[in-house]
Amino acid sequence: MITPKKIELTNYSKNFSFQNKEKEKPAIPLIITNQELAYQNQEIVKRTSELVIAKEELALQSEEKEKRAAELVLINKKIAFKNRELAIKTAELNIANRKLTFLNEEKEKSYADFIVANKELVFQNQEKEKRAAELIIANEKLDFKNKERAFQTAQLNIANRKLLFQNQEKEKRAAELIIANRELAFQNTEKEKRAKELMTANKELKKVQGYQKEYIKGLEEMMFMTSHRVRQPIANILGLSQILNKNTNSPEEHLEYLDYIKQSALSLDTFTKDLTLFIFELGKKGKQNL
């Protein structure tokens, strides 16, 4: 026989199982909802990781862009520096061309001066040859007079012999001899004068030749000084003036260029003083030699 307690327990168990089933029914949608939420959370995590990766890629791209921009800035600076270098080299080439033109002009002037000096030397040599020819003629005259004297001496010897035989003609011939002796003495004095004049002329010629050599040497030194001490400051002034004409430099650079120009001008002033003193000394030597 089934007791009432067992029946109650059985009923309670059925009710409890029914209640559990009833409880499980609403739990199923919750489980599905939780599953969907979990799936959505996974999608959110994926999207979040994808966003983080995308942000990192954007950051890398920004860094690459900044690097590219910095490289472009450096390239532009290098290009600007090269352009400046090209401008400086172009200016230097222009200055060098002007220097070459100036040097060619100076060479032409020096060549013309040399031509004039050579003409003067040719004229002086011609004058020397004329003087030498005159000296030769004078020597020939002296030789002729010496021959005349020898001939006269021979005649005197003949006369002396004749005097031995012609006593009556002694006085006349003695007077003639006295006159001849006076003439010979006069000729001897003339010879001595001519000889002194020739010696003096030779000394003067030697002095003139020495002065000509010193003068030519002085001209060569002047040309050397001019070509080495004048051209460089002038070329510096010309080049700096061209750079200043561009008006592309700062005031500090202008002051620096002006200082260089001042130094070149002072160098020219010093050379002018040295050249003046050199010319004065050269003229003084010439006066002393003359």
In brief, what are we looking at here?
The protein has 290 residues and is mostly helical. It has helices at 4-165, 170-229, 231-245, 251-289. Helices cover 95% and strands 0% of the residues.
Note the main attributes of this structure.
single chain, 290 residues, mainly alpha, 0% strand, rod-shaped
Polypeptide structure, described:
This protein is mainly alpha-helical and 290 residues long. Helix content is 95%, strand content 0%. It contains 4 helices and no strands. α1 runs antiparallel to α2, α1 runs antiparallel to α3 (231-245) and α2 runs antiparallel to α4 (251-289). The longest helix has 162 residues, at 4-165. The mean pLDDT is 79.
List how many beta strands DSSP finds.
0
Judging from the principal axes of the Cα atoms, what is the shape?
rod-shaped
Distance between the termini: 180 Å
What is the C-alpha radius of gyration, as a whole number of Å? 63 Å
Which ranges are low-confidence, i.e. pLDDT below 50, for 5 or more consecutive residues?
none
* Secondary-structure element string: HHHH
| Helix residue percentage | over 70%
Strand content: under 5%
Mean of all residue-level pLDDT scores: 79
Judged by helices, strands and strand pairing, the structural class is mainly alpha
Largest sheet: none
Give the count of helical stretches.
4
